[in-house]
Amino acid sequence: MTGGTLPGCGFLEVVEMRHLRVLKTVERTGVRAWLVGDSARMIEMGIEPEVMTLAVDAKDLSSLSDRLDGATVDARGTFPVLRGSVLGAPFRAYSLQGDTIADDLARRDLSIEAIALRSDGGVVDPFGGRRDIRNRVIRLTGDDVELIDRDPLRIVRILRFAAELGMDVFWRTDMDVREFLRCHAERMNAIPAERWGREIISGMKERPWRFISLCDHYGLLPVFLKDLEDLKSVPDGRGRTFFSHVMATLSVIERRLPTHKIMQDEAFILAGLFSRIGTRSLNAGDEGERRRNKALTSSFLSQWNIPAETIRAAQAIIDGYRRFYELRTEEDLCGAVLEHGADAMAAGLDFAGCIARAEGLPHLETLSENRWRLAQVLRRFKAVALQTGGASRFLGGDEVMSLLRLAPGRIIGALLDGLDVAVGTGRVTNRAQAEEWIVSHARSV
Predict the structure, then answer these.
(1) pTM for the whole thing?
(2) Is the torsion defined by CA of 408, 412, 416, 417 positive or negative?
């Protein structure tokens, strides 16, 4: 959730200074404007939105942009959006969807998103969204069966909001979601995997454990990730199932997200979801299991249209986190940083910690030592940039060739790779030592 919590005593003052003043400024151009969507919902929840979402009674956003300094129209999406800043407050505005604000709100799925705030302080709330916010429930704006029958993915969006906001789901009708899914299995399976992926990634972004728990409660796992559902029948030999291990890991990750900066967070969360897919042993020492896990992870995430870089990062975390349960030398860590990058190593180490806490593994002391050693390696590489004005090495390839009077080739590359390790392990700490190291090692290379 974006934005900062508003202090209770100054809430009305902040509101007056922020969204009401923004609305009044926009309306001075001759159009009517309302604060809508997530922005209105956040204000009602006592949270100040970072970017204000406006609906404006203007069909021509280009004309409106001419009357708002610095505002520009972005026409790349489904409908044009006017982006700009008023009184230092960033905003995005779109034309009313329909003839009136009531028409616009009626197009929204959820009551808590179907609220509009006026410039005079009034509120348009035709579906009781403010009441639902107070009662902490998620409710559709119309008939549950009709709306979900029209777009079954609405179920996932409802669960995403419920997970993110910590609210309960309230069905207006006595609808059995599981029965709906069973009766409409073919329709659910016909939904493109890319659409599933978009909703799943959004749902897991902040509350991965709660979101997957809700999906499990409503019987959605067999629809979008059957291999995860299958883990419920795979015992670990200790009285638990592999599914419980996945959920325990997601629980630890969810608790860390608000308080820890997790590198490659999307790949990190996906690694938690897929870490046990296709495996039948806890240590995953079998090469066949690792290959099966990698193939399944790649297949699902590719179908979900996840970027290839994120898929590789998630697979690298799954493949490499167990290595942190053994004490690693600085030279080993240095080589891994050079091969995979600092962010990937930090993510793998954090993931190993999450797994260890989730499963009660006796590796925390080893992880702590590896974390300290990795920090030393990264500190030394950063020192190079400080000494050289941002360069990644004390000596570049041209400088090494000039120093040794050699042409480009394998020898130069091998020397530079060796110099990187020498820097990362603390044997070389300045340019003079780098030149000395190159000269002394050139003969052996």
Answers:
(1) 0.84
(2) positive
